[in-house]
Write a structure and sequence with these properties.
The complex is a heterotrimer of chains A (300), B (531) and C (313). Chain B is of the alpha+beta class and 531 residues long. Chain B has 17 helices and 18 strands. Chain C is mostly helical. The chains are: A mainly alpha (300), B alpha+beta (531), C mainly alpha (313). Chains A and C meet through helix 4, helix 5, helix 6, helix 8 and helix 10 of A and helix 1, helix 6, helix 7, helix 8 and helix 10 of C.
Chain lengths: 300, 531, 313
């Protein structure tokens, strides 16, 4: 009952996005029952087949069942997005809050380091990193995390700056609370709603950035079917077997769309009084987009 | 000792262009000649009639290159095939080679192998470089000296080690080799003849004595040429010019070709092979699946689990070449079991075998690693190599070998193979050669320049020595048959996979001539445009 | 005032440090350019001679100082691979990339202004829903996929436009214009997604502002209010965002350049990295970095402008 009331209090965008995400989750969970072919098995004996009952999304050029690959891709892309999101928040939140709260020296130091990381186009930075470190399973993830840590830190810092001078912080300070306590018990809970929004946005944009990295040849390793990798592998088939491009493209967009909607919805839900103007919220999102103007902007 | 060191560095006529794209494209011309030969022999009768009606005199041949964006137009110091192709139209060669291994005179009116160590070239008279200097015996000798001078860092340098030239008269030059080398003329056929005084400018403004004059190069976009009225056979040039546009993405390049306005695309996207073939069947375009190279898997024969010959045999038996042809090559390639095209007179049909997973499993069980092992296949970041490794990963999983596909820049893979030698399994491709000894010398001789798998078999070395000094064709065939059976089957020192196909697509029926010469542009003058 | 001075000096400092970072970072890439040039014909003695010729002998500090001094004199060095002057090549490329971005941004504005106005004017109706769905879709699709779709539709299927490549506008302006349409569209569509959202938000914000309510209470018609107050007030933030977008798009340019075979600076940089062409990489990344730092400076200054409290720190 309580759940229902709470659910009703949420806005439509959250409702829609939750249903979209649930649909994808159920689809990828049920995938092994719908189509019992492993995603990297080339045993179908055919190549470049259109959709059939047995293979609802067709078969790719390597003779692999596309349905299994796309559903596996949903899981993988979600995993990538989630890992990037959690890692960058894990680093970005303490750095951002400390930087904002302690101010002066620490803030300047962090800010300069962030400025430096911000000074390079992300994809180029990722390319250079991969060229230096060599390709490895985790290099692509590492490159993405490197892209998003500065973004997350910057965002958290801005949010925390706004909280820092609030009365409750001053009150805690007067009461002799430690820095850690103030940051963790007072500032963090108050910026948590923005963090939720930040998280969903990073989640969504990281999936797109991974697709761009795949296109540049530094993404997931074959036969790993992240949605970006599937798109890159199949992009040449658009003239002959367009379903091999359209289906993963639509799935990827659907996933990112759901996450974007969730982010939008959460933002409105958590800020019902519309205390900050829409424009400022958009500007915040622009900072986030920095990771994707280049990544979403996004080449072997 | 010195000799051995040189041998290591010496990677032969292809120089350090060993990167598969470079090598393969560099030699694409050779292969295309054959393809065109086959094609024109099949379809020439009907085509020539049609073509005669709508031929265009003049016009610009406007094509798309999707291999690599060249960063230099100097084919002397830059071993990139892209550089050679981009600079090709302004160059001429002493001789050019077709797929059967036959050499045809070009700038040289005749070339005679006096003995295994002496070659005499007689040049055509009254030929001038585009800068006005005469193309005479002295100019050729100067060029050879320039190549031999280490500080010029010419990529053919190692191939010219110890060579002496003798200017007999204005047009005759004698080349004296330090040791018998029947393949030297092939090396010379890859050296465009240019004036030494122009060498410093070749990278940005190439010039030679070919049919077209360099016009403009917009780095990263296109390179253009206009016809040279002073070319030695100027009357043969039908086109007003050539323009080559460079696309880094072969899918986009092929789309651009299909969108219209362009005369050819090379290599066209393998993903679009089926579409292009359909269009070719409908007569909209011509499709030429040129097969300039062979893709192979090299195993470390000295260390690691692949040092066990049983493991290597198991690997070769477990591989599904059919899936490799259908998958990464979209049906336009064919399985390979040797370093030679099946059409070669040195080809040994006994090398062919069927996939046999059961036998492979038995061999694995008898090996030092009966439970299988984990290994990496180093793979250059090229779509079809990645595809091949992906297929191999699936195949080898069946016999208990757990493969990780490690993708790197092509340059890094080559560095790994030949400099650091730090790998157990690596996939790459190399240009097929019409000369049987060429690839066998590189890959299978214990001191061979490309023997990165550290394969050593004294019996094979002895056979290879015999092969080099044998003149009788029948005996030579027998010798190389033994070499191939020992190395490909018994020792499995080298696992050929499939033909490395780089398909060209083009419009107009009179492109057959030019399509034969992606490297030896010298036969391009005859190209005509058709409406 | 102090805030602005601090930010600007900080920005300049960052440019300096990033030049140092670029310089050292590319020297961490395995593979020596001398070896890269010689490939398998590697010979230690030859390599040493070549390193001297390329200016690679001497300590790291000496090399860096030599480079940075030359840069201050406007000399960016010569490409290791083809000997072309780096400054000129990068200049040519930069101009082309800027042409690509300016045109793209222009297309983006052409799409986003009507989209933003219509969607704000019909908040909650089907027009708003449709436009927001389109913008969200544009935010959710990788740009290389968008590029491939555009090529497929306009070049391969409809034969309306060339699928890529570049024509010198001095040779054939019309052809140049044609070849630019698809890249511009690709940049513009991606950009419009964000800009039209910002415009919509700004218009909605402006409609709720006190001055708008006052104007409404005076009995001005909605049209007049929109013209006189709402659009005027919504245009400033939108312009700022468009300015920022240009900087951000610069970083994404090389994906588009790759799809459309466009000879811009992104393509050059990627190529130079794979060939270890140090002078080329150093200079082009430095240019990117300078561009980005300028953009970030603007963001900082804009924040200070929006939220005066930040200025006091």
């Amino acid at each position: 009952m309580k759940f229902l009331t709470w659910w009703r209090s949420l806005n439509t965008r959250i409702h829609v996005s939750v249903f979209m995400l649930l649909f994808l989750a159920v689809l990828s969970a049920l995938a092994p029952f719908i189509s019992p072919f492993p995603s990297d098995e080339m045993g179908t004996g055919q190549t470049l087949l259109g959709p059939t009952w047995k293979h609802p999304f067709g078969i790719d050029s390597m003779g692999r069942d596309q349905f299994s690959r796309v559903t596996e891709g949903i899981r993988l892309s979600a995993f990538i997005g989630f890992t990037v999101m959690s890692t960058s928040l894990l680093v970005g939140v303490p750095v951002g809050i400390l930087s904002a709260y302690k101010g002066s020296l620490l803030d300047s130091l962090f800010s300069r380091i962030l400025d430096l990381l911000f000074a390079f186009p992300n994809l180029l930075l990722a390319l250079v990193f991969v060229t230096i470190l060599g390709s490895g399973s985790w290099t692509a993830l590492l490159a993405l995390v490197i892209i998003y840590i500065p973004i997350a830190s910057r965002f958290v810092r801005s949010a925390a700056l706004a909280e820092k001078d609030r009365d409750y912080v001053s009150a805690a300070k007067v009461n002799g609370a430690s820095t850690f306590r103030i940051c963790a018990k007072h500032i963090l809970p108050n910026i948590a709603p923005s963090l939720l929004v930040l998280g969903t946005n990073i989640f969504a944009f990281a999936i797109l950035a991974e697709a761009a990295l795949s296109y540049l040849g530094v993404g997931a390793k074959p036969p790993t079917p992240s949605l970006g990798k599937i798109l890159t592998e199949n992009q040449g088939f658009i003239t002959t077997s367009s379903h091999l491009v359209f289906i993963p493209a639509i799935t990827l967009s659907f996933l990112v769309l759901a996450l974007n909607l969730l982010g939008d919805g959460l933002r409105d839900h958590l800020d019902p009084k519309k205390t900050s103007s829409r424009y400022k919220k958009s500007l915040m999102q622009l900072l986030l987009r920095k990771g994707t103007a280049t990544a979403n902007g996004g080449q072997k | 000792m010195e000799e051995m060191k040189n041998e290591k560095i010496n990677i032969g006529p292809w120089g350090n262009s060993l990167s598969r794209r470079n090598v393969l494209i560099g030699s694409a011309g050779v292969a295309t000649v054959a393809g065109v030969g086959l094609m024109s022999s099949c379809s020439s009768s009907s085509d020539t009639e049609e073509a005669a009606s709508d031929e265009i005199v003049g016009g610009i041949l406007d094509g798309i290159m999707t291999q690599q964006i060249p960063s230099s137009l100097d084919p002397f110091t830059n071993a990139q095939g892209a550089a050679l192709n981009a600079a090709g139209p302004c160059h001429d060669w002493l001789e050019w080679v077709d797929i059967k291994g036959d050499l045809y005179p070009s700038l040289a009116a005749s070339a005679v192998q006096d003995d295994a160590q002496t070659i005499t070239y007689v040049l055509n008279a009254d030929v001038k470089f585009q800068n006005g200097e005469p193309v005479n015996a002295q100019a050729v000798a100067d060029l050879f000296d320039w190549v031999m001078d280490k500080k010029n860092a010419a990529w053919l340098n190692s191939r010219f080690e110890g060579v002496k030239t003798e200017v007999v008269d204005e047009l005759t030059i004698k080349v004296l080799l330090p040791k018998p080398d029947v393949t030297f003329r092939y090396a010379v056929s890859r050296l465009p003849i240019a004036a030494v005084s122009t060498m410093a400018e070749q990278a940005l403004t190439p010039s030679g004595c070919g049919p077209y004059k360099f016009e403009r190069w917009v780095q990263g976009s296109y390179v253009s040429y206009t016809k040279d009225p002073n070319y030695r056979n100027a009357a043969d040039i039908n086109l007003d010019g050539i323009k080559m546009e460079h696309f880094a993405d072969s899918n986009a390049g092929t789309q651009a070709f299909l969108a219209g306005g362009k005369n050819w695309v090379y290599p066209s996207s393998l993903s679009q092979a089926k579409d292009l073939k359909d269009r070719a069947d409908k007569g909209e375009i011509k499709y030429l699946p040129a097969e300039p190279g062979v893709c192979y898997l090299i195993n470390n024969c000295k260390t690691g689990p692949t040092a066990d010959p049983n493991v290597r045999k198991a690997i070769r038996l477990a591989l599904d070449r059919g899936a490799m042809v259908d998958g990464p090559f979209n049906g336009v390639s064919r399985p390979f079991f040797s370093m030679l095209k099946p059409e070669s007179s040195y080809y040994v049909p006994e090398l062919e075998y069927e996939r046999n997973v059961e036998e492979a499993k038995a061999l694995m069980a008898a090996s030092k690693t009966p439970k299988g092992f984990k290994e990496k296949i180093y793979t250059p970041n090229v779509d079809y190599f990645i595809g091949l490794s992906t297929v191999m990963k699936a195949n080898l999983a069946e016999i208990g070998i757990d493969i990780t596909v490690e993708i790197e820049e092509t340059a890094a893979t080559i560095n790994r193979m030949f400099v650091t030698k730090d790998f157990n399994m690596v996939v790459l491709g190399d240009a097929l050669s019409p000369e049987v000894s060429e690839l066998h010398e590189y890959y299978l001789r214990s001191t061979g320049g490309r023997n990165c798998g550290k394969y050593v078999n004294k019996a094979v070395d002895a056979l290879l020595d015999q092969g080099l000094s044998e003149i009788d064709d029948a005996k030579r065939i027998e010798i190389y048959k033994q070499v191939q059976i020992i190395t490909m089957l018994d020792d499995t020192a080298f696992i050929p996979l499939v033909g490395e196909v780089l398909p060209a697509a083009f419009k107009g029926s009179n492109f057959d001539e030019f399509a034969g010469g992606f490297i030896q542009y010298i036969i391009w003058p005859k190209a005509k445009l058709t409406a | 005032m102090k805030y602005y001075v601090l930010r600007i000096t900080g920005g300049l400092l960052t440019i300096f440090v990033s030049s140092l970072l670029v310089f050292s970072l590319i020297r961490l890439i395995p593979g020596d350019p001398a070896a890269e040039l010689m490939g398998l014909a590697f010979d230690p003695e030859l390599a040493r001679l070549m390193r001297i010729r390329l200016g690679l002998e001497g300590s790291f500090v000496q090399q860096y100082l030599a480079w940075i001094t030359a840069v201050f004199h406007g000399d960016f060095g010569y490409s290791f691979i083809n000997g072309a002057p780096v400054g000129q090549e990068i200049g040519d490329r930069l101009i082309r990339t800027i042409q690509l971005l300016i045109g793209g941004v222009f297309v983006g504005i052409l799409i986003s202004i009507p989209a933003g106005i219509v969607s704000a004017g019909n908040k909650g109706k089907w027009q708003d829903g449709g436009i927001m769905a389109f913008t969200t879709l544009m935010l959710s699709i990788p740009q290389f996929v968008l590029g491939i779709f555009l090529i497929y539709i306009f070049a391969v299927k409809l034969h309306l436009l060339p699928a890529g490549g570049w024509t010198d506008p001095n040779d054939d302006f019309v052809q140049w214009l044609k070849s630019m349409v698809l890249p511009w569209l690709c940049v513009g569509m991606a950009m419009s997604a964000f800009t039209s959202r910002v415009l919509r938000s700004s218009i909605l914000d402006a409609k709720n502002m006190d001055y708008t309510r006052t104007a409404r209470s005076w009995g001005l018609s909605e049209k007049e209010i929109s013209r006189k107050h709402v659009y005027k007030n919504a245009s400033a933030p939108t312009l700022t965002v468009i300015g920022l977008e240009i900087g951000y798009l610069l970083g994404g340019a090389f994906v588009i350049e790759n799809v459309f075979a466009y000879p811009g600076i992104g393509q050059l940089t990627v190529k130079a990295i794979s060939q270890r062409d140090y002078p080329m990489i150093q200079t082009s990344i430095l240019i990117f970095a300078t561009g980005f730092i300028l953009v970030n400076l603007i963001v900082d200054l804009a924040y200070g402008f929006i939220d005066p409290r930040i200025r006091q720190r």
